[in-house]
Each structure stands twice: as structure tokens, then as C-alpha cells.
Amino acid sequence: MKKNLAEFLGTFWLVLGGCGSAVLAASFPEVGIGLVGVAIAFGLTVLTIAYSLGHISGAHLNPAVTIGLWAGGRITAK
Questions:
Q1: Is 34 left (phi over 0), alpha (psi -120 to 50) or beta?
Q2: Contact in structure between 25 and 37 (CB atoms under 8 Å)
Q3: Which helix (H) or strand (E) holds 69?
Q4: pLDDT of residue 56
Q5: Model-level pTM greater than 0.90?
Q6: Could you tell me if residue 44 is inside a domain?
Q7: How many domains in the chain?
Q8: Taking a C-beta distance cutoff of 8 angstroms, is the pair 56, 50 a contact?
Q9: Measured over all CA atoms, what is the biggest interatomic distance in the chain, rounded to whole angstroms?
């Protein structure tokens, strides 16, 4: 259960931090973060997830990765 919760929180944080910065950059171009700011936001978001949740779930931020590992038999459904 810890791994599932960690993956959920990691995906939530990635969407909030990365995609949220992209939405703000597109909605308010005068703010000035631009493309580089969005890239830095995504990078820092992934970095914080890897350091805070990586030891629990391996920091699989994309649920499709986990489904692919399960389908390939590399992890169990448990």
C-alpha cells in the first residue's frame, strides 16, 4: 500500500508542479517563466519526487510504467 500511495503522490506532485507551471506560463505570458522556466519546474519536481519518494516506490511517476512492469511480469500486483 505504501508503494501505491507514494506513486499516487508522486504523480500528483508532477502534474501539479510541472503541468501547473506550463499552464501558468501559457495563461500569463507576462509572468516571464517561459519555456526555460517550465523545463526547470519539471526538473525540480522530478528531483524532489526522486529524493522524497524514490526509496519507497522507485519513483515511477507515470502509472503506465507500473502497468508495463506488471504486464511484463517484473513486479507483482500485490
A1: left
A2: yes
A3: helix 63-71
A4: 82
A5: no
A6: yes
A7: 1
A8: no
A9: 48
pLDDT at 2: 80
Give, in order, the Cα–Cα distances in Å from 16 to each of 46, 62, 71.
11, 14, 28
Q: Residue 24 in 3-state DSSP?
A: helix
Could you list the residue range(s) of the whole structural domain that residue 29 is in? 2-71
8 A C-beta contact, residue 48 and residue 36: no
- Give me the tens of pLDDT residue by residue for the chain, a chain 78 residues long: 787 788 788 888 888 888 888 888 888 877 778 888 889 998 998 898 889 888 887 776 777 777 888 899 887 877
Dist. CA 38–CA 2, nearest whole Å: 30
Grid cell of 60 as nine digits: 515511477
**Is 11 inside any structural domain?**
yes
| Residue 66, C-alpha cell as written in the block | 507500473
Classify residue 77: in a domain, yes or no: no
Query: Could you give the CA distance from residue 61 to residue 38 in angstroms, rounded to a whole number?
Result: 18
